[in-house]
Amino acid sequence: GTQTSGGNVAEVQEYRTVYSGEITTLNYLVTSTTNEFALAANLVDTLIDYDKYGVPQPCLATEWEVSEDGLVWTFKLREDVKWVTHEGEEYAEVTAQDFVDAMKYILNPSNGSGTANIAYSVLKNAEEYYNGEITDFDQVGVKAVDKYTLQYTLKEPTPYFLSMLTYVCFFPANGQFLEEVGDKFGTDNVNFLYNGAYIMEIFEPQNRRVLIANDSYWDKENVHIKKLVQTYNKEAATLAPELFLRGEVDYATISSDILDEWMSDPEKEAMVRPNRTSFYSYFYCFNFDPRFPEEYEPDNWKVVVNNKNFRKSLFHALDRKAAMLTAEPYDPEKRLSNTITPKNFVDLNGVDYTQLKSLAKFANTDSFNEKLALEYKEKALQELEGKAKFPVKILMPYNTGVSDWANRAQVIEQQMENLLGTDYIDIIIDPKPPTGFLQEVRRSGNYAFLECNWGPDYADPETYTDPFSPDGTYNWPHLAEGYKEANGKNTYENMVNEAKAERLDIEKRYKLFAEAEAFFIEEAFVIPYAVGGGGYSASRLNPFESLYSPFGVSGERFKGQKVLAKPMNSQEFTEALEQWEKERAEALKKAANQ
Amino acid sequence: MANSMDNLVNGSVDNTKDTIDDIDESLFEFADFDEIEAEKTGYSNYSYWRSTFQVFMQNKVAKFLLFLMIGLLAFTMIQPYLPGQKSPTKIYIDENTGMQLRNHPPDKEFWFGTNSIGQDLWARIWSGTRTSLLIGFFVGLWEAIIGIIVGTVWGYVRRLESAITGIYNVLNNIPTTILLILLTYIMKPSVFTMIFAMCMTGWLNMARFVRNLIIIIRDREYNLASRCLGTPTRRIITKNLLPYLVSVIMLRMALAIPAAIGYEVFLTYIGLGLPVSIPSLGNLINEGRRVMGVPSLRYQLIFPAAVLSIITISFYVIGNVFADASDPRNHV
Amino acid sequence: MLKYTVKRLLQSVVTLFVVVTIVFLLMRLMPEEGYFGEGYEKLDEAQREAILTSMGLRDPIHIQLINFYIDLFSGELGESIIYRPKVPIVDILKAKIPYSVKFGLAAMALSLIVGVPLGVTMARSKNKFWDKLGTGYIVFINAVPAAVYYLFLQLYVTDIFKLPILFNPDRPASWILPTISMSLGGTASYAMWMRRYMVDEINKDYVKLARAKGLREKTIMVKHVLKNAIVPMVQYLPTSLLYTVSGSIYIESLYSIPGMGGLLVDAIQRQDNTLVQALVLIYSSIGIIGLFLGDILMATLDPRIKLDRKEGAR
Amino acid sequence: MNNTKREAILEVKNLRVEFGKKKRDRFVAVDDVSFHIYKGETFGLVGESGSGKTTIGRAICRLVETAGGEVLFKGKKINGKIDKELDKELTRKIQMIFQDPMASLNERAKVDYIVSEGLYNTKNYKDEEDRKRKVERALLDVGLLPEFASRFPHEFSGGQRQRIGVARALIMEPEFIIADEPISALDVSIRAQVLNLLSKLQREKGLTYLFIAHDLSVVRFITDRVAVIHKGKIVELAETEKLYNNPLHPYTRALLSAIPLPDPLLEKQKVLEVYDPSCHNYDNNPPKWIEIEPEHFVLGNDEELEGYKKRLEKIRVEV
Amino acid sequence: MNDSNVILSVKDLVVKFNLRGNVLTAIRGASLDLYEGESLAIVGESGSGKSVFTKAFMGLLDANGWIESGSILYKGEDLAKYKREDDWIKIRGKEFAMVFQEPMTSLNPLRSIGSQVEEAVTLHQRLRGDEAKQKVIEILNDVGIVNPEKRYYQYPHEFSGGMRQRVVIAIAVACNPKILICDEPTTALDVTIQAQILNLLKKLQKKYKLTIIYITHDLGVVANVADRIAVMYAGDIIEIGTCEEVFYNAQHPYTWALLSSLPQLGVKGEDLYSIKGTPPNLFNEIKGDAFAPRNERALKIDFVKRPPYFHVSPTHKAKTWLLHPKAPKVEPPESIKFLRKKWQVMSNE
Ligand SMILES: Nc1ncnc2c1ncn2[C@@H]1O[C@H](COP(=O)(O)OP(=O)(O)OP(=O)(O)O)[C@@H](O)[C@H]1O
Ligand SMILES: Nc1ncnc2c1ncn2[C@@H]1O[C@H](COP(=O)(O)OP(=O)(O)OP(=O)(O)O)[C@@H](O)[C@H]1O
Ligand SMILES: [Mg+2]
Ligand SMILES: [Mg+2]
């Protein structure tokens, strides 16, 4: 059933926002950046989709089946879906070959796709093709059986394969068009084909983007918002609330800075509501591959970070609630997370993954513990005496574009230094500009201690191990010293690999992953911190109308949503949330029974 | 001779005759003539600096601002040592709730309120003022030193003139802001980086300014006189040329301070400024900007902006008035 | 005049070459990551080398320089690598420059329209009310960082006059405030210079003579003083005009104007070497060309300049 | 007077000075100028503005480079490259007094420094006290009070300033002083001060002056011999009275006829002679520098010289 | 000369300046009658107020100066009462014109010579277009500029100093004034050119029936051009008389000093007479005779009371106590005695 929006629907279905992070490309086959694929999600449809309770739905594929051995997936495509140009002119029909061509593009290393690894982690022969060991693309596990039949062949049975299909690396792309435009693909709205709910009418980087509903969209009845206007502003975070009040935009994040003000003004209070938390997981990474400048003493850091007691002293010293106050001053605990895999992500026969035996003890205790922190500090000091220089310089960059991050950095610096003493650690907070932040900081190992986040790519605990794999770009735990096993790999890597290898027995698989994660936390390779989302916003959207999925692009789609005449307030939100949870349980049950 | 005197007796027809006739005879004696006194007449004893100071003090606004600045400078210096001052970086905790004392409006305890994580704005503003002034002073001083050296050589040593002009033309064609951004980007944001980057760019103008002046005064006769007397170039520069630049140098230095602070704010604005952990007027304003949309929190922008404006305006005005005052033409 | 023009032109060309070469060489010092997109860390040393070689970055420096000039002469500025991968820089600029120029011109016109009369008024009422008011304004604008007053303007003026906060090409009202804000600085400096030049001119002997001739004060001001005072300012107009291309970093980012203002900052922040190189080149060339045009303009207005120094030789 | 026996302290032979490095804007300011100055005399140099008077003066004290010819001081060549010792000596012996008393003193230095600047350079004093004494004496010599030493130039009138300039030169104990229009920037009423001072010093210290001026009455009053210069060339040179009484060259005559006389009777009867350089016909008959009568030199070609000679005859007859 | 043709009459003019808060008295009660058609020379040392005095007639005082008291009667109007620029506009150019000292800077460098002269022609002779241009060329010709048609279009920098001064004179003449004030018109020029310019002025005076005030400190120039001479010292006219009277029968010690310091009157090899000391500071109030402190023959009364005019002849008067009947007889300097001898010869004739 549809909820609250009932009579509360705006006359003009136009949704206006401001944003500060400009995309660099529309090329969804290449990007792995949320910003960028969120946009693509509204322009290009995928094989399947989720409904608003998170139940898989047909999308471009009308039906699908999987072979007995779990290796071959066959999709029947919807007929008569059109690729259109930015002017809405029909270009071609969407066929099975488009998925093949897109995959061919992604698996060509010279195209520099950021998500190829995800595709070749499941598809047969894909990795070999990518690495040039195979040159015949026909051997790769993707095939257009006929115009409307698409077949994927996997390396190994992959229970969560379906959920991966909403990720960018499984998007279709018209091969002829790719050929035609070559390098220019996705550089602007013209060099782009649309088969999704919207067409990008105007694309003026650093100015605005206008998306209008696609007239030839196969499911256009479900596209209620006719126009999306997204305006760029470097100061979006600062200006958005004011713009919202003046009725110039329909969405504004209400940062913790100004939340008090909004909450205390009845008129404004009626417009502000909490956000849903997401499955983004936030954690503090210790960097095992420090590549920061000499002045921050990377070599010293390398010594201390490889000392477990040192890590654990920090692990227990981080007062996560104090830190969270900078983002979530009203209910900080609702977002704290003690594991890397968030609660409610997946479950095993009704038991939440985080409550599996090995993980439960971490999941249910707050890592912040002053006493332990000081104990570990003593141990670390003993062990490291003479080997490391104290206080240890800890380079902690933050993104100046995220308004509360700077504050959090200062809070953490002061809180941890207070607790552990400045003779022990010297946290150096290092402001970095938002543009290219990840590139500049995390991916280049230009930090010692950093708040990082990770969003799931498919519905399996494995997804939360990806950032820590040797080719991840987070903190390179495989380089940690003292964990090397006979095969030359680190314990954690072996544990993960063992879990990954278990493909059919889900129960065993989950347990193995849980053990790996528990080990990871126990050894304090990272400090789990929080889940994403949350915070407060003023918005003319009903969050419960949105498609729902913890991963992939579905949640980014505007399809199915309506612009409200009046923003929700907190109370309405809570009520809607309760109702939604009820409805969802039913929906999931119903789906499971099918 | 007698003839001419007759004219006098006969010809005096002036109507003041009556009053002048009864002047005491004794007054018509010769007065003593003192050549030395005559030599001394008309000119008062004069001191350059005193006159400069006097002329400066005649400008009431500048006088007021000067005292304000002296007070303010003294205050920023001693502020941390005054009783009851808070730390600029410490995050204060609300004792009742155990949480950070966020966005606490100005009151008796926190004179300028607290910021969004509970740091004392009053302390931060003075600490920021110290940082910004430090940057300003260093940059001003450096600009003066390098600017003067280059400018003097440029203007005085004819052999190097065209070479330096060439270099200047090239450097001058790379806009200041661009160089500034490039440099701060390449280096880590820190007070040193700021100072360094601004020093790299600021001296150009100073040098040109000095050079133009030097060219004007280098061919004045008194410099020829010095050359005639065999005065070495070094001393010509220090004794004959530089003293004429004092006013300009002071002015430039005074102006360099607001300019440096302005650049600091600019760099912070584009995200290349000092980290928030080192308060500066630039990042205080930048922080304040984040909450400017909320009327009750605007004090976080207004306080630093006001302090900044007062400082920059004061230096600007003082610099200009001083430059005027130090021009001997303006000494009566 | 022709001789003078040719001479100045040659000078400018030489300077331009030197500047361009220096910029080019400086850019070789930029970190090499700036030639790779997102995939930088995924590549190993050999692959990186291969890419750099294919881009011609491993050629001897003089070959690179020659190639660079060849490209430059054919109007080729290269492609953006990171900022907007694979998009020709020329295209990026094409989209941005019109906005900056429109705003720049509007602001410049406004500053001139307000600043020049203000300066004239100040000069004429030296040390009286208007002069003091104008001086106050000039001091304020020069001393207070632009960031501060721009912000206050954006905050309060939009509120009071119900103007849109953000720029929107389709809403004429959204042009007003950015233009005004942008013109404030120019207004102050035009007024300041105008005042200074006017005061200089007013004290000159020929003005006394004009007065003695019996000309009306207004005539003197317009026909003699104003004209002569404007001449030294005119010299800088071409540069200002050309610099409108570069936009205002503050204003454009505050009001979301998609001009050149933020481009350089973005390009530098993202280390997009080719884009940075192109921009620095453009800015530097603008300066040189502007100076050249300014000098020529000056020479046409001021008959003394053509003689080029002969007179003032002493 | 029997001049032939007198010792020439300075000789200028075929002096040539050019300005401007490049060929195109080269400008010959002084062209083939020769004269000599006897020890103890005052030698005048007159000519209109821009004729090269200052340049000659500056060439002598080595402030401008010479492009040709020789300058001999006491028989030693002093232009072009010279050794350090000589340079030092010349700095002391040849001094200059400048035209503009407002511009020729460093306004930011005390009189004490200004006057002793030369002493510092030549280290020509025993100790601080000696230096002070010397400054004091120099000031007294020019009629200023020793207490003025601690003042700045602003505080003085034009005449006083000019005297400070003289003191500055004097303290070097020079033998030869180039006075470049020392009084033309001064008010009439104080010119006499400086003229008197110059004569006094000459009497007392046996100085030799090169006195540059464009005011011919002053030149007549103070100089022993005069050279008239026109466009970088000396056109006539003679003992002062001789020149004033029998000017030969048309330019000299024009110049003299134009002197304003402070005497209404004479002045109102005065006839102006106008000099037109095109009266010369030098194309195929170039001029020569000839001693037309003892100690009277004039520039002219053969034809003109004939005319000059006739003129002299006539004057002699008349007398 | 009789009073009927007095064209301008200045009475007790006091002019003050405000200089950074201090008041300076530049003209201290000077009076002067100017006769139609004459040429009057005002002499005096630098800073004595010659320029200020004459500028006051035209309302051309610098902005910081004002007429404190006194009157300037011209054609029945008291110019000293004029307050507004518009009043002065009626006078300037049409009635009074001025030639300034600096030929190099008195012309607008950015406008052609012709247009600058034409401005005056259009304004004061009401001529336009070709007629005006013709007139300009005629005037340029009058002031001795060869090839005026071509020169019309040239700019000041293409002219030499003497030529520029001619142009400035042309502008003054083009205004068709009654009175021409020449403020040191030749000081910056070479003697030969100076003589030419003076001749030119004399010629123009005849042709246009001008009354001319010359300001100069060159007594040679004065002797050449002046009918009458006024000697100024410290803001006051201390002696005035016909040219011959002042030259040959000077009465004021300052005039003596001025004359006897001229080298032309000196004896070669002897010291010239020289004025000691420096002029008075005009910021201070001057008591008695301003020249007293520098006057070797000063009387005690000179330091006490300011002398009034004592007439020597109907045309000759001086402000010095030496002319008072009670005053002791004073020997003037040698050179003055020499001049007086000439005077005696002349008056005996
Ligand atoms: N440094 C210089 N560079 C180029 N030309 C010069 C320089 N100094 C002098 N001249 C030129 O040389 C010529 C002679 O100049 P000089 O100063 O000797 O003349 P002067 O007779 O002293 O004139 P015045 O009476 O004006 O002082 C002038 O035409 C002048 O322009
Ligand atoms: N604008 C002014 N402000 C202040 N004082 C002035 C101003 N103009 C003239 N004076 C003063 O008035 C006095 C007379 O000046 P004036 O120019 O009339 O002298 P002058 O006799 O013309 O001298 P010179 O021969 O140097 O031209 C001087 O002391 C001068 O300083
Ligand atoms: Mg000279
Ligand atoms: Mg004057």
UniProtKB/TrEMBL annotation, chain B:
Intracellular or extracellular location(s): Cell membrane
Gene3D superfamilies named among the record's database cross-references: MetI-like
Keyword annotations from UniProtKB, A to Z: Cell membrane, Membrane, Peptide transport, Protein transport, Transmembrane, Transmembrane helix, Transport
A single GO cellular-component term on record: plasma membrane
Entry's transmembrane regions: 64-82, 133-154, 166-186, 192-210, 241-261, 297-318
SUPFAM superfamilies listed in its UniProt record: MetI-like
Family: Belongs to the binding-protein-dependent transport system permease family. OppBC subfamily.
Protein name stated in the entry: Oligopeptide transport system permease protein
UniProtKB/TrEMBL annotation, chain C:
One GO term of the biological process aspect: transmembrane transport
Topology in the lipid bilayer: Multi-pass membrane protein
Keywords from the UniProt entry: Cell membrane, Membrane, Transmembrane, Transmembrane helix, Transport
SUPFAM superfamilies: MetI-like
Domain ABC transmembrane type-1: 97-294
Domain of life, source organism: Bacteria
Principal location listed in the UniProt entry: membrane
Record localization: Cell membrane
Membrane-spanning intervals of the chain: 12-30, 103-123, 135-153, 173-193, 275-301
InterPro entries the UniProt entry points to: BPD_transp_1_N, MetI-like, MetI-like_sf
Any one annotated GO CC term: plasma membrane
Family: Belongs to the binding-protein-dependent transport system permease family.
PANTHER family per the UniProt record, alphabetical: INNER MEMBRANE ABC TRANSPORTER, OLIGOPEPTIDE TRANSPORT SYSTEM PERMEASE PROTEIN APPB
Protein name per Swiss-Prot or TrEMBL: Oligopeptide transport system permease protein
From TrEMBL, chain D:
Keywords (A to Z) from UniProt: ATP-binding, Nucleotide-binding, Transport
UniProt record, GO biological process: peptide transport; transmembrane transport
Domain ABC transporter: 10-256
Domain of life of the native organism: Bacteria
GO MF entry, a single one: ATP binding
Keyword Transport appears in the UniProt entry: yes
InterPro entries the UniProt entry points to: AAA+_ATPase, ABC_transp_ATP-bind, ABC_transporter-like_ATP-bd, ABC_transporter-like_CS, Oligopep_ABC_C, P-loop_NTPase
UniProt similarity note: Belongs to the ABC transporter superfamily.
Name recorded for this polypeptide: Oligopeptide transport system ATP-binding protein
Automatic annotation (TrEMBL), chain E:
Coiled coil: none
Entry-linked SMART domains: AAA
Main location: membrane
GO molecular function list: ATP binding; ATP hydrolysis activity
Subcellular location: Cell membrane
Entry-linked InterPro entries: AAA+_ATPase, ABC_Ni/Peptide_Import, ABC_transporter-like_ATP-bd, ABC_transporter-like_CS, Oligopep_ABC_C, P-loop_NTPase
GO CC annotation: plasma membrane
Keyword vocabulary terms for this entry: ATP-binding, Cell membrane, Membrane, Nucleotide-binding, Transport
Highest taxon listed in the record's lineage: Bacteria
UniProt domain ABC transporter: residue ranges: 8-259
PROSITE patterns in alphabetical order: ABC_TRANSPORTER_1, ABC_TRANSPORTER_2
Gene3D superfamilies according to UniProt: P-loop containing nucleotide triphosphate hydrolases
Membrane topology: Peripheral membrane protein
One of the GO BP terms on file: peptide transport
Ranges annotated as spanning the membrane: none
Family recorded in the similarity comment: Belongs to the ABC transporter superfamily.
PANTHER family on file: DIPEPTIDE TRANSPORT ATP-BINDING PROTEIN DPPD, OLIGOPEPTIDE TRANSPORT ATP-BINDING PROTEIN APPD
UniProt name for this protein: Oligopeptide transport system ATP-binding protein
Organism, scientific name: Tepidimicrobium xylanilyticum
